[in-house]
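TODO from last week: model F-box domain-containing protein.
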Amino acid sequence: MDKLPIELIDHFCLFLDKTSLQNFRLTCKAIAGIAEKQLFNNFEFRLYPKPGRLHQFGQLAYKTTIASRLECLSFESGIPLEYADYKYWQADISTEGLRAWTRNWAITGDKRAGYHLFHEGLQSRFAPDFPSRYQALRWHLDQQAALVAEPSVRDDLARTLNLLKQSCPSLTFKLIMDEPQIKLEDLENFRPEECASQGPSNPDPRLRIANRRRHCLEHFMNFLDAANLSDFGLDELVAIDMPHELLTVSARKEVLSRVFSHVKRLDLKISAFPHSDWLSRTGINDIYVNGRNTAALKLKTLLGETSELDSLRLEFPIGNAAEYSIELFDGTNLDPCPRLWLSGLRVLSLSCFECKWNDLEKFLADGRNLESLTMKDGRLENGSMLDLLDYLSWRRFPKVELWGVWHVQQDMGHWHSHSEEDFNICSKATSFEGPYASYGLRSEVQEYIHGGSKCPFPRWTADHSPVSEWENLSDTSWHFVAGI
C-alpha cells in the first residue's frame, strides 16, 4: 500500500464512508496520512468538562496537518438530572432481550431457548454493587467538572489556542449547554478504586446541585475568556441553549463585556438551567428585579457595548419571550441603552419574539444597513401581517425571509410559513392542498416582500373581513388558521 501513488489512494478513499476510513487508516501508515482530507475537512472539535479531553485538544494543536483543517471549537457542558437513576438501563435491556427472545420463540418454537441465558447475563451486568458504583461515577464526574472549572484551565486553553493559531488561521467558537449523558458501558468500564483519592462524596444534595451549576458557568467563562485573550480573538461566537444565568453571574462579569465589545458575528439561543426542587426551596432563583427580567436587561446592555457587530441571530426562550422582547423592542426603555448597534448590522435573524407592530417597525427602521433579514415564530400584539408584508416590500431588503408560526391578534388567527422540509410537521398543513413550498403561495409572498408583484391577500375594510378568503387562498407552504 505504501508503494501506491498518492492520487490513487486518495481516489480510493472517496468510496469509503467515515467509519470504514477510521478503521482502515489504523492498519496502514499511508492511509493514516492521506485520509486526513476526508476525515478532518472543516471539522469541529468538542471539549467536555474532562481533563483528558483538554489533553487531547493540546495534542491536536501539535498535529499541524489536522489542526489546519479545524473550523469550529466548541465547549459542551450541562447539569445532570437530580434524580437520574441507573434502573432505566435495566428496563431497556430487559425489554430489548424480551423482544429478541419472543422473535426466537416464534422462529424455533422453543420457549426455553436463550431465556435462562438472558436472565443470567442481565444479573451479571447489574451486580449487587451496581448502585454504589453508579453513585461513585456521578461523584467522579462532579470532581472532573470541578477541576475544569479552575482558573488555571483558562490559561492552559489560551496557550493551546495560541499554539493552534500557527496552523489554523481562524476559528468559530461555540458554547453548548446539554445534559451530560451517562451510558451503561461507561459505568461498566469505570473503576472506583482508581478514583479513591478524590475523597468522599458530599452528603448535602443542595450543595452538590449548586456546585454543578457554578461549575457549568465557570466552564463557559473559562472558555470565553481564553478565546478572547488568545491570538484568535472572539470574532464569531455561537451559543446554543446558553443559560440565562450566565448573563447575570456577578463573578467575572467583565468577561462578557470584553466578549461583546469585540464580537463580529453572534448567534445566541437563550435557555435556562433545569428546574431544581432543592434550590427552588431556598428562593435563590429569583431573576426579577422591580418586575423586570435581569437577564434580558443585561443582554440589552451587552448589545449596547458592541462596536464591531456585523451579524446577529437571537432566539429567545419559549415562555420568557415577552420579557426579552420588551427590552429589545419597547421604545420606552431605550433611554439608558439606545440601539446604536442596530445601525451597523448587515445580517439579522430573530426567532421566538413578541412585540407591537409599531415597535417592530421602528426597530427595523433603525437597521438602516441591513442586507439580510430573517424572522421566525413571531407574535404581533397589534397590526396585521399585511402591514409587515407591506413594510418589507417597501424596504426591499436584498434578502428577507419569514418562517414559522406568526400569531397576529388583529388578524384573529395565526399565519404559517413552511419550507419543503418542515411543512409536514405542521398539524394544520394537512388541511390544505399543494402546491408545496417551491411553487406555492409562499413563493408569491416572497416575490412581494422583495419588491415585485402585488400582495396576494385581500385587505381588511370597514365592512368586510377577509379571514375566509385568506383561508381559501392558503396552501401547505403558507396558510392562515383562524382563532388565536
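Done. The longest strand covers residues 399-408.
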